[in-house]
Amino acid sequence: MKKLAIAGLGLVLSAGLVGMASAAEKAVTGTLEDSFCFVTMGAHGPGHKKCAMGCAKKGIPVALVEQGTDKMYVLLPPKNDSSLPDNVIEKMESEVTVTGDAYDKGGVSYLTVKSVK
């Protein structure tokens, strides 16, 4: 019984490690939005650029809404303990292509920002 419990624990831990390492580099084209105004009020577009930049500077999560879909990625900095690159904030409400590592967790899609074009 003890061996069975140890084997089960090993399988659970192995599955967890596989899930953590499942990032895949991806390029996504879409529009940069401040998530609060976009989700709660539907605010977006050129007239919302100044507000979106202000929200991003204050730490409101930046979302990339994929072109032609309703899929939204929450953007993450390229590495831990850093902020999003300045060129993300400067391009709020613009169509861009973000390349980075894609993650899905808890029904939410994330994309690290390695480059923005």
Task: Describe the overall structure.
With 117 residues, this protein is of the alpha+beta class. It has one domain (23-116): OB fold (Dihydrolipoamide Acetyltransferase, E2P) (Beta Barrel). Helices cover 34% and strands 33% of the residues. The chain has four helices and six strands; from the N terminus they run H-E-H-H-E-E-H-E-E-E. The chain has helices at 2-20, 35-41, 49-57, 86-90, and strands at 24-34, 62-66, 72-76, 95-105, 108-112, 115-116. A five-stranded mixed beta barrel has the order 1-2-3-5-4. A hairpin with a 2-residue loop joins strand 4 (95-105) and strand 5 (108-112).
Number of domains: 1
Which structural class best describes the helix and strand composition? alpha+beta
Compute the number of strand runs: 6
Instruction: Give the C-level CATH assignment.
Output: Mainly Beta
Strand share of the residues?
25-35%
* SSE sequence, one letter per element: HEHHEEHEEE
How far do the termini sit from each other? 57 Å
Low-confidence regions: 4-19
What is the CATH topology assignment? OB fold (Dihydrolipoamide Acetyltransferase, E2P)
CATH architecture: Beta Barrel
Widest sheet, order of strands: 1-2-3-5-4
Major β-sheet annotation: 5 strands, mixed, barrel
Tell me the overall shape.
Answer: globular
Helical residues, percent? 25-40%
**What's the tally of helices?**
4
